Amino acid sequence: MDPSAVAGTQAGTDGREARLLLGLDFAGTYVFAVEGAIAAIAGGLDPLGVLVLSFATALGGGILRDLLIGATPPNSIRDERYALVAFAGGATVLFLHRFVTDVPPLLLVTLDAAGLSLFAIAGARKALDFGLRPLMAVLMAAITGSGGGTLRDLFLTHVPTVLRADIYAVAAMTGAFVMVGGQRLGWPSRTMALVGGASCFALRMVSVWRGWNLPHFP
Amino acid sequence: MDPSAVAGTQAGTDGREARLLLGLDFAGTYVFAVEGAIAAIAGGLDPLGVLVLSFATALGGGILRDLLIGATPPNSIRDERYALVAFAGGATVLFLHRFVTDVPPLLLVTLDAAGLSLFAIAGARKALDFGLRPLMAVLMAAITGSGGGTLRDLFLTHVPTVLRADIYAVAAMTGAFVMVGGQRLGWPSRTMALVGGASCFALRMVSVWRGWNLPHFP
Amino acid sequence: MDPSAVAGTQAGTDGREARLLLGLDFAGTYVFAVEGAIAAIAGGLDPLGVLVLSFATALGGGILRDLLIGATPPNSIRDERYALVAFAGGATVLFLHRFVTDVPPLLLVTLDAAGLSLFAIAGARKALDFGLRPLMAVLMAAITGSGGGTLRDLFLTHVPTVLRADIYAVAAMTGAFVMVGGQRLGWPSRTMALVGGASCFALRMVSVWRGWNLPHFP
């Protein structure tokens, strides 16, 4: 659930595409911050706790990825706009809590899946830019996409949902695998990023629609 | 609750002030280590667990801050005296447990508030020294001051107190905000550090005295 | 429980010894990954959670140590073979769960103690190689050896076993202390590594056999 990689992966793109990516990045940050804040209020946290969970849910995955790949200080620590967007998401929930709970679940799930796709692809690309091997880049997609939600669950002393149910990190890794695999076959980088992101989004949405989980072992 | 920033922020101060700051830094480390050890014993940990919680409570916030701002290895990993002071705090509780529980709560709260103020100011200054933006420096004050206690709570599988109740991280951020804001207005750096620290201390003490919490939302 | 240090500490050893150490390193990684996967299944995680806990248990301690000593990106992020070995351990448990539960506990305990000894010694040596002081190197032995298991417990929202019972991190620190102490006395480095590792292994095995715990305070 962390977008902060996007701005770091614009090498070679023109200014307009860079601005588009940055805008999408902030949009994803905002969505995940809102989700973190909703969980914080459900968990009985105070307003500071709500803002902390907004920040951790939205930016924790990307910060963890940046620490692991050696991109320090992490992008969302250097660029304060990420924190501002995350806090805006938390403040939205604090001040408009009644309206936020009226948002249709399907809309939240769809926006979350879009954000997951963006962050998975951006996370894998940044890992490759920092010289990581393809397998590790795919793992970094999962960490970028689900690390923030894992932190959120740990702060609330829940076993992280991503380890127990749903198709979430697997969707992130599938998208990254498609992108990285295509690039290795020499297919155009930008196209494969789009195809990878679409794969992640489609798998996540279908799995929610169908109620898919990974099979549990006895 | 982490002081290890102090020694890293002495540029431009003379040797005597540096020694004073280092002494205060160790004193704060000791106080937070004692608090971590008391929580560890209440949580049923063994002596190793007590020492680990002393270390994590006293130094975890500063270590986390140093990792985030790119100051690696963290100051309290490089300088072994911090670990020695933290373990001394843990050992005090292990061997003098009966006496430690007789310490008046108000004394512990006061010492803790003094340490919080010191570490918040030192954490914000170190973040600025490493080129972080003012907003992020204020956040680093909160992480330096309350990161160790958060780690302590997570090790004991409690939802961190700082996210649920009290005015604690908010006091740290208030102090840092006063200092950073004053410096941006061109006021003298050392004076603003003192005023910021005093603001943090006063807000923390008044909030304990009055039983203040942040307002909870329905 | 993390071995990834071993490959980083081969300076001055010939190729054959390097290959032996790397093989032992992978063997230890595999054993701890199996243990992480068993705990994950007992905790009701799905297959993704099983693989995540394999990775975290086997490699988390070494990753944490590398972040703390400034060896970024961590060895087991750079070299994808560690992840592959960890996932192989997790997959073994997923597909051969019935057989794994038939493994005699004493065998698992013995293999775990051997891995602990290897990782403690390797962790302390790597810390010394990165310029840490002897006390901190001994602490890094404990983090390398027990950090992964601590992460595993936190993901399952258990208070980490290493903080509550058994002689585990203490065995790691004893072995590292013997090695570091001997080297400071000028005794041959390779011999002291073997003696230190043997001390850790012996203390761990005897403590399991005798049911030793650290004394709890009232």
Automatic annotation (TrEMBL), chains A, B, C:
It comes from the Bacteria. The keyword Membrane applies. PANTHER family: INNER MEMBRANE PROTEIN, UPF0126 INNER MEMBRANE PROTEIN YADS-RELATED. This is Trimeric intracellular cation channel family protein. It is a multi-pass membrane protein. It is found in: Cell membrane. Keywords: Cell membrane, Membrane, Transmembrane, Transmembrane helix. Residues 24-98, 110-181 form the Glycine transporter domain. The chain crosses the membrane at residues 20-42, 48-70, 82-100, 106-124, 136-155, 161-180, 192-212. Pfam families: Gly_transporter. Belongs to the UPF0126 family. InterPro entries: Gly_transporter. The keyword Electron transport does not apply. It comes from Corallococcus caeni.
